[in-house]
Design goal:
By secondary structure, the protein is an alpha/beta fold. It has nine helices and 13 strands. The chain is about 30% helix and about 20% strand.
Length: about 325
């Protein structure tokens, strides 16, 4: 790609082992397409990485794991940044854009424990660690007899705390454990019908300046169109619900080929080929109410599918939960 203004591209990333590994995945993919370009990694510490003694929901800032990375972009200190897509808010700053989605790993949440073989087998009164209100709210609906606590730190640190006995179990994203080759730590994969994942969970996001045409062209070459369609629907769903407040909501898009005789419920727009099914969830923080629904349609209508499902769930009663959250936790972002 000889038109690039420089043969060295500056890449921003968080400093954790997982973040660096994910950045390496993106760089490796780009290098296969553009072998003459050199990529220079710039580790950046985010606000969420600095404050480890408080729950993330209490930090009260937008995008606690992305803000400093976006500032580096806006100040032209890096050319693009790599995120775990679930950390990226739906309302991006002016002049920045989500340029590529790729490498979606298993989007499910997992149960990790040394004391039980499954979440439902945990003894009453057990302590379950998770920094995500989305996870806690959905699982509390199943088990009111457990104690959910916040636990901060990167994945190896949290696993170590579990092994030291600081909690009885924890809920994590499968993708992080799989990428770190910690598969043996996974006790149980949670069904998405029980714990709907965070929007974008398992996928990598590459963000850059919206006017940087050369970088945008380069990143377009590694776009995963299937993951892009799924993510577009999920982010549209969250955006309608109010992605800027602390919403215990999850969504999962799945693109597949449709069998000729397959009957799809809640079909929005008639698909001619592949079909995108989006499942969504909104849960009350105390687990007292959980709203779930799904919708299907062609992938080219991904945005409309996400918006339609969110509005349908709001009308079904989820808006009451969302309204209460907006009043009690204004301008606070919960980790997904």
């Amino acid at each position: 790609m000889t038109s690039l203004r420089t043969s060295t591209i500056r890449v921003g990333t968080r400093e954790s082992k997982l973040a660096r590994l994910q950045t390496d995945i993106v760089i490796s993919t780009l290098s296969n397409n553009f072998p003459d370009i050199t990529f220079e990694v710039h580790p950046i510490t985010t606000g969420g990485d600095k404050v480890l003694d408080r729950p993330i929901v209490e930090l009260g800032t937008r995008g606690v794991f992305v803000k400093e990375l976006e500032e580096a972009l806006l100040e032209d200190r890096v050319d693009f940044v790599v995120h775990s897509l679930k950390d990226l808010p739906t309302d991006l700053p002016a002049n920045l854009t989500l340029a590529a989605v790729l490498n979606r790993e298993d989007p499910r949440d997992v149960f990790v424990s040394l004391k039980a073989q499954s979440f439902m087998e945990l003894a009453p009164g057990s302590t379950v660690a998770t920094s995500s209100r989305r996870r806690a709210a959905q699982l509390m609906a199943l088990r009111q007899d457990l104690r959910f606590v916040d636990m901060r730190g990167n994945i190896p640190t949290r696993v170590r705390k579990l092994e030291e006995g600081q909690c009885d179990a924890m809920i994590l994203a499968a993708a992080g454990l799989l990428r770190l080759e910690l598969n043996d730590k996974i006790t149980e994969y949670l069904s998405t019908d029980i714990c709907t994942p965070a929007v974008g969970q398992g996928a990598l996001a590459v963000e850059c300046r919206s006017n940087d045409k050369e970088i945008l062209t380069m990143l377009a070459a590694i776009q995963d169109q299937q993951a892009k369609a799924e993510i577009t629907a999920e982010r549209a769903f969250l955006d309608v619900l109010g992605g800027g407040c602390s919403v215990p909501a999850g969504a999962l898009g799945r693109l597949k080929s449709r069998a000729a005789d397959e009957v799809i419920n809640e079909l929005l727009f008639e698909p001619k080929g592949d079909i995108l099914t989006l499942s969504g969830c909104v849960a009350a923080l105390d687990g007292s109410e959980v709203f779930r629904d799904s919708i299907s349609g062609p992938p080219e209508y991904a945005q409309q599918l996400g918006q339609a499902l969110a509005k349908k769930m709001q009308e079904a009663g989820a808006e009451k939960i969302l309204a209460e959250l907006r009043l009690t936790t204004p301008n606070v972002v919960s980790p997904p």
